[in-house]
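Before the break, one more example. Copy the sequence into your notebook; we will annotate it together after we see the structure.
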Amino acid sequence: MIHSSASWSCLYGHVIAGLVDRGQRVVAPDLIGFGRSDKPTEQTDHPFARHVAWMSHALFEGLNLRQVTLFGQDWGGMSGLRLLAEAPGRFSRPVLANTGLPTGDTAAPEHFLSWQRFAGTTPVCWSRPRQRSGVTPPARRPPGPRPARSRDRAFATTV
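Here is what the structure looks like once it is written out:
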């Protein structure tokens, strides 16, 4: 499962738990720069091809995955489709949501260009959810051990 931009693999927590309960192995890596992944700080560290290469290395060289059912959403779908094109023999089927694969023969849509300008000029993004209706959300839990819960077994097989 490859998540969307401005998200992380915990987005799929309930889905992962359900799949694991049904005997499936689930691998849900965080894209570089998101969630609990490394956070390269140089803009030159973030071309699309490098993100695809990082994911390929983790999934194929690191975990040697085969017969993968790819679930890719948004940005994760774009990365996943590139992985599928580069190593089709490792996949059994794709499942895609809210994604596409730019071909380069048309201009990028304005909403993407707007996001790209924002991402390229914003030195620090939000570290916690925005405040809504005057209620401050709780701080995110720090990394490290956490109390056991029934869904924790689902994350035992994540990258």
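Confidence is low (pLDDT under 50) at residues 126-159. The radius of gyration is 17 Å. Try to locate both features in your own notes.
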